[in-house]
Amino acid sequence: MARAISKTDKSNQQLMAKVLADIKEQIGSKKIIDLKTLVAPISLHPFIVKELSNDGFLLVVVANSNLANDLAKQLECFFEKAKISIFPSWETLPHERLSPKPDTVTNRLKTLDQLNSNQIKILITTVRALISPILVKSKVIPKMKIEVNDKYSREYLIKQLLKFGFVRTDLVEHRGEFAVRGGIIDIFPADCTVPIRIDFFDDVVEKIDYFEVANQRTISTDLKQIEIYPVRELMIEDGQYFEGIEAFAKKLIKKCYSLIDFLPKKSVISQIDTPRLNARARELIETDAEFAQAKWGNLAWSETRDDTPAEQQFGYFQLSDLIVDATKENIDLLELNEFAQNENDFSLKNYEKAPSYSGDIGKFFTEIEATDLEIEVHSNNSGNAKRLRELLDESESNIATKVKVYESDLLHGFINRDLGIWLVTQSELFGQSESDQALARVPSRRKKKIDPITLSNGDFIVHEQHGIGKFVELTVRDFGRYKREYLVVEYAAPKRGLPADRIYVPTDSLDQLSKYVGADQPPLNRIGGSDWQNTKRKARKAVREIAADLIRLYAARINSPGFAFSPDNDWQKELEDSFSFVETVDQLSTIQEVKADMEKAIPMDRIICGDVGYGKTEIAVRAAFKAVQDGKQVAVLVPTTLLVQQHIQTFTNRFTSFPIRVAGLSRFNSDSKNLEILKQLEIGLIDVVIGTHRLLSKDVKFKDLGLLIVDEEQRFGVEHKEELKKARTNVDVLAMSATPIPRTLEMAVTGIREMSHITTPPEDRHPVLTFVGEHDDAQIKAAIHRELLRDGQIFYVHNRVESIDAVAERLKKLVPNVRIAVAHGQLPERILEQVVVGFWNKEFDLLLCTTIVESGIDIPNANTLIVDNADKFGLAQLHQLRGRVGRSRERAYAYFFYPPDQPLSELALDRLKTIATNTDLGAGMQVALKDLEIRGAGNLLGGEQSGHIAQVGFDLYMKMVSEAVSDFKQSYNKGFGARRKHADGEVFNSTDEDFDSNFECRLELPVNANIPQEYIDSQRLRLDIYRRIAATRSDSELLLIQDELRDRFGELPLNLQLLFSISRIKNQARSIGIKEILWGNGKVRISPVKLTNEELDKLSRLYSNSVYKIVTQTLIINYKNSNFMEQDLNSATSDAELLEWISSLISFITTLQPHTNTKPNSSGVN
Question: How many whole angstroms separate alpha carbon 778 and alpha carbon 853?
Answer without folding.
Answer: 25
